[in-house]
Amino acid sequence: MRSTEITPEKDGEQVVVAGWVHEVRDLGGLVFIVLRDREGFIQITLPKKVVDPETFRKARKVSRESVIMVEGTVKKEDKAPNGFEIIPKKFEILNESSAPLPLEVTEKVPAELDTRLDNRFMDLRRPKIQAIFRIKSQIVKSIRDFLYSEGFIEVQTPKIVSTATEGGTELFPISYFEKEAFLNQSPQLYKQILMSAGFERVLEIGPIFRAEEHNTTRHLNEATSVDIEMSFTDHEGVMKLLERLVAKVYEDVIQNCEKFLNILELKLEVPEIPFPRITYTSAIEIARKSQEIPWGEDLDLQALKTIGAELGGFYFITEWPTKIKPFYVMPFEDEKICKSFDLMYGYIELASGAQREHRYQKLVESIKAKGLRPESFEFYLKAFRYGMPPHAGWGLGLERFVMAMLNLSNIREAMLFPRDRTRVSP
Ligand code: AMO
After folding, report:
1. pLDDT tens digits for 357-381?
2. Among the atoms of ligand 1, which is closest to the Cα of residue 188?
């Protein structure tokens, strides 16, 4: 049984519990063991006079973080966590832990992030850290449920690819027989091809690989992207979908993750929709309060901090200069600006998306204008020559979303085993 399945009302019942030895307190004639399982803590109480001598001897010597299984009687006890304790009949050490521990699981001694990540298996035993991933799991479920209910079909596109999609970040080359190949930066081209294939609404939750040179608190070299693509709509249509999705995820997390939010000492509120929308041009005017920045340049961290401080919370930046967005974005009639948007939370970019250029000739010109060779994109361009519907979509960074929702100071906290410039293990 898990810790949460037992209550003081079960007084007198026989139960079997299993987990890790979180703490041992030896008071001579009385030993307390705090057993930790996935859901919480259970006090195992061993009075010398009551339990058999062999059990008593084993229990008082067990090392912290050993895995144990205990069979015993539930006893109502107001002073114990959750109002009960277990008096064991059987006490089995399933696996003895070595000592000293590489990392403290009790919250008593803070450790550096690097030490924690080096010993992530142990770090993840801490209830506060596990709470992050329990909420992340709910977020993914909630995203899936919402998008399925909107008619989206979940797909899996290749992660081994032959071309770049997102200018700016570099690709990771891989060794692939006689061919040049890379890890994908985004399912972008494939989700668009699926619009030509008639899927109409697709969703993918999968890894993206970015050879980011810099170690920042917002970048990973391997991240999870929630991608959607939708036919017969425009950028406005998919922005509305995105804000409804964000609100629904908050709602579900508040409803289903109260326990984990409490562990993290967080109180969430469902953000109000629609989110504010500001154009790139207005955003840059705000940024100019703190720095010189010419129209047409990308918004750097300082600019985003100024804008984020003024707007706070969730907001969209729309109508970006065509020049700084990828080739697949559709320009407005005034071709200097395009139908691209970013969803922001404070100064953090959570998602970007756009209505796409679905007109073959325009798309070829756009590829050339970025200094790229249309021949390298033939597999993609072909899908535009035989009936491509107008379409739009976005990519939402899952770890950035978790980071924003849970107020984490480093994106690495939102990834089980983060990959960065210096870390490829564990
Ligand atoms: P973009 O390159 O903006 O757009 O990526 C989409 C979202 O993915 C997340 N993200 C990252 N998260 C952590 N570490 C990184 N290195 C990283 N890079 C990106 C961000 C970002 O907003 N194809 C388009 C999406 C689309 O138009 O549909 C794209 O990939 O949260």
Report:
1. 999 999 999 999 999 999 999 999 9
2. 23
- Quickly tell me which residue has 């608190």 as its tokens: 217
Q: Which helix (H) or strand (E) holds 399?
A: helix 398-405
Cβ–ligand 1 contact at 418 (below 6 Å): no
Q: Are 64 and 58 in contact (CB under 8 A)?
A: no
Closest CA to 271 of 166, 344, 336: 344
Mean pLDDT on 56-73: 96
Q: Confirm if 242 and 227 have CB atoms less than 8 A apart.
A: no
Cα gap 358→364, rounded to integer Å: 10
State how far Cα 396 lies from the chain centre: 10
Nearest in space to 39 (alpha carbons), one of 24, 17, 59: 17
pLDDT at 7: 96
Q: What is d(CA 349, CA 351) in angstroms, rounded to the nearest whole number?
A: 6
Domains annotated on the chain, with CATH? 3-95 (2.40.50.140), 123-414 (3.30.930.10)
Sign of CA dihedral 360, 362, 368, 371: negative
Which atom belonging to ligand 1 lies closest to the Cα atom of 350? 31
CA 165 → CA 168, 421, 424, distances in Å? 10, 21, 24
138: amino acid identity, one letter? Q
What is the pLDDT, as a whole number, of residue 170?
A: 86
Beta bridge pairs of residue 224: 207
Angstrom distance (rounded) from CA 333 to CA 53: 85
The tens digit of pLDDT for each residue in 80-138 reads 989 999 999 999 999 999 999 999 998 777 899 999 999 999 999 999 999 999 999 99
Range list of β-strands (E), 110-218: 153-154, 160-161, 173-176, 179-183, 201-209
Choose among 162, 124, 122: nearest CA to 416: 124
Distances in Å between the Cα of 388 and the Cα atoms of 56, 157, 355, 361 are: 73, 19, 13, 12
Identify the residue whose C-alpha is closest to ligand 1 atom 12. Answer: 397
Give the amino acid at 243. E
Do the Cβ atoms of 418 and 117 come closer than 8 Å? yes
Instruction: Count the helices and strands in the chain (H runs, E runs).
Output: 12, 16
Record the tokens describing residue 218, joined without a space.
Answer: 């917002």
CB atoms within 10 A of CB 213: 10
Ligand 1 pocket, mutate which of 172, 208, 227, 355 (most atoms under 8 A from CB): 208
pTM of the complete model beyond 0.90 = yes
Residues labelled as active-site residues: 210, 212, 218-219, 349, 352, 400
Find tokens 């008082």 and name the residue. Answer: 60
How many Å apart are CA 144 and CA 153, to the nearest integer? 10
